[in-house]
Amino acid sequence: MTVLITGGSRGIGAAIAQRFAAERMNIIIHYLQSHEAANETARRCMRLGSNVMTISADLRSKEQIVRMKDKLQDRGFVPDILVNNAGVAHYGMLADVTEQEWDDVMSVNLKSMFLTTQLFMAPMIRQRFGRVINVSSVWGQSGASCEVLYSTTKGGMNAFTKALAKELAPSGVTVNAVAPGAVDTVMLDKLDSSEKQALEQEIPLGRFAQPDEIASLVYFLSLPESAYITGQIISPNGGWIT
């Protein structure tokens, strides 16, 4: 089995790569610019016994995704599992969002998922087995003040997940989304210690999620025995949003 993780160089993406590597699957770590981080994640995966390939591409460009797909095929890496994890955050009031910012975040968070899924789902359909797992956010379900743009992209990802699941179900390909709450990654670095503490107090479990906890759910959704789960938005958020 082969898994492609977009944005797999660090954070949740790196944790997902290592979780699959623990099962000795073939791992493809996509990144845009984080070359050293991708290589370090690859080394950790290889120490777990996996065959690993790192590859860089700008997923906003169909041409670059096609080129990435061709390179992978040349090396014998054809994904059975696609984890759409690449994305960017955006903080700020809607009144301050520029048209360029809107277009950029939409392109990274939504267009890239569309293009990547469209190009990599064909072999899954042919073999009548595949998994598409989209890493969304709790804000795609509930929305967040001062994160209207980001929330909109994740809401779009959730709708994409539900619709595509129905389209691909007859082909044996499942499509699900994992929508984490607050996860202890660099995306929380914008908060100071007092803000982090206040946020933790809002979460019934009293702490942030660890990346490997999100990775475990992603891995579960990839299993053959998870074949009856599709079109679902599953939110590991510590009881924060119900």
UniProtKB/TrEMBL annotation:
Against Gene3D superfamilies, the record matches this protein to: NAD(P)-binding Rossmann-like Domain
Which species is this record about? Paenibacillus terricola
Q: What's the superkingdom here? A: Bacteria
Which PROSITE patterns does its entry note?
Answer: ADH_SHORT
Family, per entry: Belongs to the short-chain dehydrogenases/reductases (SDR) family.
- What's the name of the protein? 3-oxoacyl-ACP reductase FabG
NCBIfam families under this entry? EF_P_mod_YmfI (NF047420), PRK12826.1-2 (NF009466)
A Pfam family of this chain: adh_short_C2
